[in-house]
Write a structure and sequence with these properties.
Its main location: membrane. It is found in: Cell membrane. Keywords: Cell membrane, Membrane, Transmembrane, Transmembrane helix, Transport. This is ABC transporter permease. By secondary structure, this protein is mainly α. It has ten helices and no strands. The radius of gyration is 23 Å and the shape is elongated.
Amino acid sequence: MTDLVELKAPSSARRTARSLTLAVGLILVGLHLLVGILTLFWTPYDPTAMTGGRLAPPSWEHWAGTDRLGRDLFTQIMIGSRIALTVGAGAVAIAALIGVTLGVLAAFATRTLDDMLAATFDILIAFPTLLLAMLVVAATETASLFSAILALGIAISAIVGRLTRILAKRVLAMDYITAARTAGSSWLSIVFRHVLPNIWPTLSVNFALQFGIAIIAEASLSYLGLGAPPPNASWGRLLQEAQGTVYTAPFGAVAPGIALVSLVIGMNLLADGLRDIGDPTRRGRR
């Protein structure tokens, strides 16, 4: 009886920790989502208006201070949440459309085509996501929010495609797939009724992880001048503008940095929580 109690205690602790991970992730991401939606209707100040002194410290009028042009920094950080979420969602949507399509195609394809697609995925994955995104942005010959989303979506699609191919092949090796083929089910029916529902839990975790990667990559592109151009208040551009005054007005770099880190951590915690929900082996160990 004592041994049973001792076994239940760690199990309960693990279950509590996993629930807390998911809850914290949802709270962090939810706060950024609410702020992003709020900026569509209201912001404390006009993001382009010079409403205070240059590089003013945080105060009741300007919660995060002002930048080198006297614009309210908190307003720009709020708009940065909307831009980061837009880029993350857009990039993941493009990556899912391309990656899942090609991954499923590779799983069903002939050996030669499968090997070609697998090799393509591996080659693209060998390049850093940021480098591929920079190449795509350079190819479009213009830096814009759309080009950043497109570039990141294409760069991430190889990771999604490779994972989809592996998962789909695993599902296609199951006995019930053989039974479905014997019963005369079409390939399209097998994909939508058997393959996608079974690989979706794992893919959703990967999407959450890639969401965070896309946010960091977009901030890096904006820092290098290849992301959303002014007056879009990207966190990366705010960090780039604050680097020259980081010693005299450090909050100009600290505030957008905290916002960026909190959203990325929130997405990672959300991914961990989704993994615990979707993995039956983890549920069994609770």
